[in-house]
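Encode chain A's predicted structure.
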Amino acid sequence: MVREMILSPSLLSCDFGRMAEELAALEAAGLKWVHWDVMDGSFVPNITLGPPVIKALRKRSGLFFDVHLMIERPERYLETFVDAGADLVCVHAEASVHLERTVSEIARLGAKTGVALNPHTPLSVVEYLLPQLDMVLVMSVNPGFGGQSFIPFCLNKVERLRAMADACGSAALHIQVDGGVTPENTGELVRRGADVLVSGSAFFGHPPYAERLKTFQAAARG
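Encoded structure for chain A:
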């Protein structure tokens, strides 16, 4: 099955003082998705942004809002993030005790469902949930900060996840990879089964955005 690569630039690496302009520039450059890194200073050591920022910028953008909650007990805030404009809500398996209940609630609220796995977390954690999920996010760095280097064993993890999804009838599952994603490893990630790639500094640090998107697309095809 040939999948189109979706690039979801991480706003963690954009100019926070110009977020509305950055979103407009991404849309004008041909991007379809954008990745929101929400951090609480507890599940991860960094603090970023919350629902009021997403709500304010939802009015300014037609992009698909891919919202990654790196927060403890995310079930407390699902409705708030969906109401703010999240199109997809991705929670960490490590942060939610009743993960199936949390995923079901995201779906009930009308958003796409995602579960993220830290590098050390085994795929078995999400195996039984795959039919309920729109996306699994394989973290290829330990979450909390941008600009980290890709952890190589995550390539095999992506490949095993794609095989697991195909075997259980979830061939349409999006597999997202976040952390150290660059044009240099994009081709291999796509070959292993990833189809949604998150890139922060390797994207925003190389304008113009339309040309950088073409670079990633060429790498995916290559």
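The longest helix spans residues 154-167.
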